[in-house]
Amino acid sequence: MQQNLGNIMTSNVFTIKETQSLQEAASVMSEHNIGVVPVVNNSGQMTGIITDRDITLRSTAQGEAAQTPVSQAMTAQQVVQATPDMDVHEAAEMMSQQQIRRLPVVENGQIVGMVALGDIAVDNQYDNEAEEALSSISTPSAPQK
Questions:
Q1: Domain range spanning residue 99?
Q2: In the β-sheet with 46-51, what is the strand arrangement from edge to edge?
Q3: Is residue 142 part of a domain?
Q4: What are the backbone angles phi and psi of residue 59, rounded to the nearest 5°?
Q5: Percent of the chain with pLDDT over 90
Q6: What is the predicted pLDDT for the residue at 134?
Q7: Burial of 30 (0-12, 13-18, 19+ CB in 10 A)
Q8: Which spans in the chain are helix H?
Q9: Which pLDDT score, from 0 to 100, does residue 133 have?
Q10: Which of 67, 113, 130, 140 could potentially form a cystine with 105 if both were Cys, beta carbons 3.0 to 4.6 Å apart?
Q11: At 126, which CATH number?
């Protein structure tokens, strides 16, 4: 039976504006126990995504201040996203190919949900997809020289 992301996604998604600070983004993550926050502009359109890892590697490790705008550390180009009517199998394949654990679900440019690899894994009919995606995502990359 084919199932779409709209049926398994988390629809209560916390977002942050691109002009807000990294400290505010980290506070949202800490308060809600999440590791990723979609970034939106004043119109609510998704413009990027920021992860706890982005904050660490693109700001803290570079000596950037906590008041640095989110736009300076977020991933903005080619953010992988899905639609609510996308098939779960297709989403799992996309997550595997792109090596991502969380997939924003967007409709008309607005964030409407988030699907995590765990959301797919908890449904027994998607065990193989979740296992394949995790295997690809967890493949270690070579250290940078």
A1: 5-137
A2: 16-17, 36-40, 46-51
A3: no
A4: -135, -65
A5: 57
A6: 47
A7: exposed
A8: 22-32, 52-58, 88-98, 117-121, 127-137
A9: 52
A10: 113
A11: 3.10.580.10
**143 part of a folded domain:** no
Give domain status of residue 27, yes or no.
yes
Q: Using N-to-C axis directions, what is the helix angle for 88-98 and 127-137, rounded to 10°?
A: 10
Q: Is 44 left (phi over 0), alpha (psi -120 to 50) or beta?
A: left
Between CA 96 and CA 131 the distance in angstroms is 9
Residue whose token pair is 């595997």 = 96
Token pair 């903005």 is found at 76
- Please give the tally of structural domains in the chain: 1
Token pair listed for 89: 């199998």
Summarize pLDDT for 49-75 with one digit per residue, the tens: 999 999 998 888 777 778 899 999 999
